[in-house]
Specification:
Strands 1, 2, 3, 4, 5, 6, 7 and 8 form an eight-stranded antiparallel sheet that branches. The chain is built from ten helices and eight strands. It folds into three domains: 149 residues, Jelly Rolls (Sandwich), CATH 2.60.120; 53 residues, no CATH class; 56 residues, Orthogonal Bundle (Arc Repressor Mutant, subunit A), CATH 1.10.10. By secondary structure, it is α+β, with helices and mostly antiparallel strands. It is globular and about 50 Å long. The N and C termini lie far apart (42 Å).
């Protein structure tokens, strides 16, 4: 029933796991169509190296659409209609969380109300890493239930802390930046990747001391500020590398790396290949 949106036949090889209040689907998804549908649970879909197109309607009935190439995360709350076209083969992991599962997580966080904001093919490094970890486990066809439980709990916590329109400033409870500060800091990072993004600079944006900000940021995102900034800079570099006329030194500069050698080192650590190798193998001519 959870896969009711799949118009095309399911892949010949896919993985399905049923947990206590959550479900996991993973597959190397071929070109396919997921027709417009709604669910009574939250769907979090992670497309890795995907090219996808999504259409949706807001609660007021207004239409929207977006296309993305690369990694994208969709967070579809209960009752939200959406339609997705997978335009090329991609790694797809979808995690479905029941309302009761989210409610139990919310009570543990002292958050009794939740109204998740929908997200349509945006970037969220923490959710992407959770998707990668699940896919690796599913490839072995032996998803360890305690591991799956932990991933579902981390995901639910992350959603309630960062995408909950009803949330108060959760930092008052000492459990993260809170939605407003988190959005402000992330927006600043996206707009300032080529600038100084030290802990001191980010803490100033958040209005907190550097040490307190670093701990609250880690609790909110699962990453240290440095790790998160590196993720975003590498993702920006992957986009710029598709322009073959742009010198590698210019890509490094636009992404905030202090030198081309630092760019190469960090890019290789996160992707497993050098920028030049990535451009020659993955960038379109």
């Amino acid at each position: 029933m959870v896969l009711m949106g799949a118009d095309d036949p399911l892949p010949s090889k896919y993985f399905w796991f049923e947990g206590d209040g959550y479900w996991i689907y993973a597959a190397e998804q071929p070109r396919s169509t997921w027709r417009e549908h709604t669910l009574d649970c939250v769907r979090v879909s992670i497309g890795l190296e995907a090219r996808a197109y999504i259409e949706w309607r807001t609660r007021s009935g207004s239409p929207g659409h977006r296309e993305v190439s690369g990694n994208g995360v969709a967070i579809i709350p209960p009752g939200e209609p959406s339609r997705t076209l997978w335009l090329r083969r991609a790694i797809l992991v979808s995690i479905f969380l029941s309302k009761s599962f989210l409610s139990a997580t919310g009570r543990a966080l002292h958050e009794t109300r939740f109204d998740l904001e929908p997200v349509h093919l945006a970037r969220d490094p923490l959710i992407e890493e959770l998707g990668r970890a699940l896919y690796r486990e599913c490839e072995m066809q032996e998803l360890y239930k305690p591991f799956a439980n932990s991933v579902a709990e981390v995901l639910a916590t992350h959603l309630l802390r960062n995408y909950n329109a009803s949330a108060e400033l959760l930092s008052d409870f000492g459990i993260g930046l809170g939605p407003a500060r988190n959005r402000r800091v992330r927006k600043y990072i996206e707009q300032s990747l080529e600038r100084d993004l030290s802990i001191g600079a980010l803490a100033k944006v958040a209005g907190l001391s550097p040490s307190y900000f670093a701990e609250m940021f880690r609790q909110t995102t699962g990453f240290t500020p440095h790790q998160y900034v590196c993720h975003r800079r590498v993702d920006r570099a992957r986009q710029l590398l598709t322009d073959r006329d742009l010198p590698l030194a210019e890509v490094a500069h636009r992404c905030g790396f202090t030198s081309q050698s630092q760019f190469t080192t960090v890019f290789h650590r996160f992707t497993g290949v050098t920028p030049g190798r990535f451009r020659s193998e993955y960038a379109t001519s």
